[in-house]
Amino acid sequence: MKFNAVLDIQLHPGIADPQGSTIERALPTLGFEGISKVRSGKSIHLEIEAADYAAAEAQLSDVCDKFLTNPVIEGATINLVEAG
After folding, report:
1. How far is CA 49 from CA 3, 6, 66, 67, 78, in A?
2. What is the per-residue pLDDT across 47-71, written as a single tens digit (0 to 9) for each?
3. Domains plus CATH for the chain?
């Protein structure tokens, strides 16, 4: 089976996010008010072939833990949808 996946990688709560802070400070100067608690991250889109949903999720979790994230300071959310 083929799946489309989106991996959302964010810093853990409590870890300083200088990029998010910079964005938050710049927003009012650009006329955007009322926006707070900005956190930045990265999003990776890919296609994976696996036996089933659970196998795809397990493989992507392993990829995130071993390659795409620093598990000490980052976490990943995996969103899978069967490719149509």
Report:
1. 6, 14, 19, 19, 15
2. 999 999 999 999 999 999 999 999 9
3. 2-82 (3.30.1280.10)
